Automatic annotation (TrEMBL), chain A:
The gene is potH. It is found in: Cell membrane. Residues 77-285 form the ABC transmembrane type-1 domain. It is a multi-pass membrane protein. It comes from the Bacteria. One of its GO terms (cellular component) is plasma membrane. The chain crosses the membrane at residues 21-48, 83-103, 115-138, 158-185, 264-289. The keyword Membrane applies. Belongs to the binding-protein-dependent transport system permease family. CysTW subfamily. InterPro entries: MetI-like, MetI-like_sf. One of its GO terms (biological process) is transmembrane transport. This is Putrescine transport system permease protein PotH. It comes from Jannaschia donghaensis.
Automatic annotation (TrEMBL), chain B:
Pfam families: ABC_tran, TOBE_2. Keywords: ATP-binding, Hydrolase, Nucleotide-binding, Transport. Residues 7-237 form the ABC transporter domain. GO terms for molecular function: ATP binding; ATP hydrolysis activity; transmembrane transporter activity. This is Spermidine/putrescine import ATP-binding protein PotA. Gene3D superfamilies: P-loop containing nucleotide triphosphate hydrolases. One of its GO terms (biological process) is quaternary ammonium group transport.
Amino acid sequence: MTDHARISAPRRSLGPNVAGWLLVSPLALVLSAFLVLPVIMIVVVSFWGTTEFSIYPAFQFDNYAFLFGSEVTYRVFLNTFKYAVITWALTLGIGFTVAYFLAFHVRTQTWQIALFLLCTIPFLTSNIIRMISWIPFLGREGIANSALLSWGMIDAPLDWLLFSDFSVILAFVHLYTLFMVVPIFNTMMRIDRSLIEAANDAGASGWQTLAFVIVPLTKPGIMIGTIFVVTLVMGDFITVRFMSGSQSANVGRLISNDIALLQYPSASATAVVLLVVVLVVIGTLLRFVDIRREL
Amino acid sequence: MRSDLDLELVGLTKRYGSTTAVDAITHLFPAGTYACLLGPSGCGKSSTLRMIAGHESVTEGAVVLGGRDVSRLPPARRGTAMMFQNYALFPHLSVVDNVAFSLRMKHVATSTRRARALEMLDLVDMTQLAERLPAQLSGGQQQRVALARALVTEPQVLLLDEPLSALDPFLRVRMRGELRRLQRELGITFVHVTHSQDEALALADQIVVMNDAQIEQAGAARDVFDAPATAFVARFLGSHNVVALPDGMAAIRVDALRVTDAPDAPLQGHVTGIEYQGTHVALTAQVTGKQEVTVLLTDGDFFGAPKDAGEAISFVWEAAAAHPLRGGGRTNQMKPNGEYTT
């Protein structure tokens, strides 16, 4: 009895501030322990020195100097951007049309939900499995080649189907299109349908309504999807490794190779540069579109 | 008098599956009229308006404007413009771009369309806020912009879907004055959908009372109010008592009943409530056949011979004040949802 009294009294006196702190503290703790601290650690290690057989704490710019001095770095970063831009363009095209279909062509909410869930079914399997399952499909003796051969569309198996930029981008698009569909669909669902009628009333054709009303109002969703896809593609290494058959490189693979060779300071420096590049890209994107409305 | 710009509905019907939202209504809106489509929610007035606008397909019948059937044309080619209930302003465009939108769709040069848009904004007194976004405007201001955007297309008929319902009562009265002024200045037909009889009476040259997918009564505002044809119209417009008299149902205005001491008065009963309303006193009484009647007495009349609840009371009226109602029976009742059955 007295315990209860003692507990309930201070509980009532908890100010909104205390309650607020209590609500955010679990996530704040997790993020600071597993995100902020590791990032700081990476930044610190990126200035350390290495010899053939050891790593020693230091504050020197050797790693960065080597990184920026190497022609490989620029080529790999360029390749990473190439993957990001092509994947972004394809996921945007597919994501926008799928979201448009779901939001404006499917009339009943039941069907909208059903079809939306259908889109998420591939996510019930791990993305590595989904990636690997492309290999028997695209290989020299794979289903795609044998089908094309038997239809007489090609005379010899296509080599570029697998272990090429084509297969890497195919896998990226397959893995990440949903990250475009969801935010765009979400923004489109918030567009007041009477705006489309109003555009129609003002004599706008279907394409004009799309260009002057729907796309501008969907921009925040497009931007959120873009951030998802760009960060995922730029940070990826496993897709590039599997789908290119280790023949192409991106920044993620550069880092993972360094780690495999225990070159932690060099890996950290590359990671820091990648992080800064991605943040600059996102920062630039956010200057163009205000996404606050969506959050 | 018929004119080329009359708007005419001919057997206009809208069916959704097995339900009929609008049932073969026929009506003529003479050019330059301010018409109100009045009725409870679900009576089909909005569907009618949306069919005129072209935002709803016509199941059967025709919408004739300027001598041609426009019912299969796209909205922008009909010569109508619609003002939406929530205004439907484009949130990403400034006020002036919103107004200029239809001109932009027609590829009118930027400077021309800006000038036209500013002209329209001047008409609704909004020029000084031309560069704002809709979100930075008050409800009344948004409505002016919506009005300017509809008028920039130079329509022959302006369709307004419950235009005042989102405004507070004070603004509502002001905006309705403004709508009336604009309609007079422009001389085009306004078709205004509303469920508020005050609004309809205050604005309309012509009232079309709709109920249950059909037109219950149409005519000049005063004619409809003075002589409601059905019990539904009398009840919906208010200020009428619908009473069963020996020779059938009749509507008698609340201010046409007079209190009397004569022993052979046609309506006798007892007072059930007294409500002081400043200039008037509303007195309710239960009379023969458990019917409830309301009488509006001037404060002078009432306080000259005050009554208390429960007291016996009798009413008389001039013969001309009782309007016989068609389609009426003794059991006529308003259902709670506003539908009317016999």
